[in-house]
Amino acid sequence: MRVLLDSDFLVGTFRKDDPHHDKTKRILRRLQRKEVELCITNLVKQESATVISHKVSMDAVRQYMITLKQDVDTVLWIDAALEARAWKIFLQQTKKGCSFVDCANLATIEYYKLDGILSFDTFYPIKLRIGQ
What we know:
about 130 residues, alpha/beta, 4 strands, about 10% strand
């Protein structure tokens, strides 16, 4: 199984007062017992580091980077073609406040034929959200 990590899941892992903190830990423990390839995009890696720096600390960001190097199997880079697909998905959205990074995640899941995403964001179809 190959799954993509989303920022809300990662922030929940590193922020102890996050409402999803305990659930992220349970899901990760369960996935460690299975053969799961954890993937992250360069955009999510950057976005998560920024949010962790704002909501937790720079020390937490440093720990986040160490953890990513240890636990993430694959970094998927958003190249020009994937970015173009993300823009197409983004511009088709009708709801106010849509996230470009979320649309890039959908494009990535589709392009790489990933099995789902570790996220609590209801933007993603329930069938894609792992551990829900």
